[in-house]
Amino acid sequence: MTTGNAVERVKCLIIGSGPAGYTAAIYAARANLAPVLYTGLQTGGQLTTTTEVENFPGYPEGVTGPVMMEDMRRQAERFGTDIRFGIVTGVNFSGHPHEVTLDGEQTIMADAVIIATGATAKYLGLPSEDRFRGSGVSACATCDGFFYRGKDVAVVGGGDTACEEAIYLAGLCREVYLIVRKNYLRASKVMQQRVFATANIKVLFEHNTVELFGSDMGLEGVRLVYRKGETDEAFKEIRVDGFFLAIGHVPNTEAFKEYLQLDAEGYITTLGTSTRTNVPGVFAAGDVMDPVYRQGITSAGAGCKAAIDAERFLVGL
What we know:
- 24% of the residues lie in helices and 30% in strands.
- By secondary structure, the protein is an alpha/beta fold.
């Protein structure tokens, strides 16, 4: 590995180390593309903050997120992927090969670039959120809802995603509290009707979460304030085992926005059903371009597609 201000030329550069990045690396390495992968700040991506993963094929007994990502890493390394720790601080996609700067000093010139930097879930910013993250606090009902079967949970948010997650959880849990900051839901009328028609969803309008509480064993409840900021503020507590954030995600695209086409929410736009971006030779996979599914398995599938798209692009050079 070169250091300092040296410039290095590679055939295939992969940015990100979640399921999309590691899967892209596995396919690219097996296709003799000699991929170099930079992990980003969070090696292994969002799944490293998840405890049990039971819905990823190939693990019939389930697996922890960190163990699964380490398995993917070892598989990518087995085929020759050069995995390095580093953070993208700048790119220049105006010509070819593509120029990527890591940590403000290392320059990589790449014939093909696969972006798999993922997205970051929005949290409320409460210190108690960090305390119970992975032991009661989650940003993915589809991923973690099963663990709360027959229990009481809360969902924060008032949009379509929050309503979808509340309805999904209502099919598993005893009672679902939907905590809404405003006095109305922002969700579509259809989603609102479904929420109000679901008997075990209780909507708490004009409530804000001020604290989560529990023990070393996990989350036990949520402290709420009604009409925060008003003189007649009223506090109350609800007992829940799970607390789900559904207030959105932020795609990690800041370094690329000057060159790549993004949608209104900042996700990278890809062409058709491919992983190709508006810049030839630059591909995107996983949560960085997928605001809909956001699952480990769909990210892995997109990583596979990106490697195949990159291979076909390189053949044509």
